[in-house]
């Protein structure tokens, strides 16, 4: 009898050891998931509605297990496999999605189009009109964030970051620092602007980024648009008088890129003529470093990651005299 009891005890020990503790099991909605609202959800007052009251579809539109990485520098989600857009282009614009972190709704986003005249109050995904399925989802800031009117950009919710880190999806991306801006006044439409900037790889992976030394100033400006000079609500940008006469994408190659290793930095200087005359003033200066997502389909990288997206540089105070 004693022997039988020992055998039974040993059996249950083995069974219990082979079972995972319920506290170790990953919940179904762990990590970052994006849900669509149920069809019957009233959205007329959605931005004033507590997030816990939102009625979400049972299954996520974009599930955590289909996410390859989340680039924190651009808030872009890269997918392992393509997903269908929830509806056709015209029907989906203006509809909402909800970003959740470990099952908790963190913020509401909206499907948007560049041509829409109304102003989005939420972070947006600008829907590509020519596609029915996507492999990446850049979540852009709301107009309030762009105008620096918002108290907090909800995309930086600490719960989202924690869920990304714990699920191994967090990708720090890059940082863009505007180091210096110099203005050389000549005459109307003949002003030259020289600026230096640094790109820092914030990850431990090899990444490839646009390099103005390799692609040339004109093509680099085609994608990045150069320095913006802001004084109050007024903004001065370069009005090109010598624009390039071909589509750069017909000639794009990996020769335009430089590889940055773990935490590596490059610093580049760009000289641009063709600005209008810039009045004497104290300006806040910045530019957008950009590599369009559409170029991913045109290039092949065997090792490392091709960085894509649009990131605002640091802001530099510049006195034009």
Question: Which short descriptors sum up this protein?
Answer:
321 residues; alpha+beta; 4-stranded mixed β-sheet; 6 helices; 20 strands
List strands and helices in order, with pairings.
Layout: H1 2-18, E1 32-36, E2 67-71, E3 76-84, H2 89-92, E4 96-101, E5 104-112, E6 124-126, E7 133-138, H3 143-146, H4 158-166, E8 170-171, E9 174-184, E10 191-201, E11 207-210, H5 212-215, H6 217-224, E12 228-231, E13 234-236, E14 257-260, E15 265-275, E16 281-286, E17 288-291, E18 305-306, E19 309-312, E20 316-320
Parallel strand pairs: 2-8, 5-6, 11-18
Antiparallel strand pairs: 1-4, 2-3, 3-7, 4-5, 9-10, 10-15, 11-14, 12-13, 12-16, 16-20, 17-19
User: What's the pLDDT, averaged over the residues?
Assistant: 84
- Structural class from helices and strands? alpha+beta
Head-to-tail CA distance between termini: 99 Å
Shape: globular
Q: Helix-strand pattern, N to C?
A: HEEEHEEEEHHEEEEHHEEEEEEEEE
| Biggest beta sheet summary | 4 strands, mixed
Poorly predicted tracts of residues: 4-27
How would you write the strand order of the largest sheet? Answer: 1-4-5-6
Spatial extent as radius of gyration: 25 Å
Count helical runs.
6
In which range does the helix fraction lie?
10-25%
The strand count comes to 20
Strand fraction: 35-45%
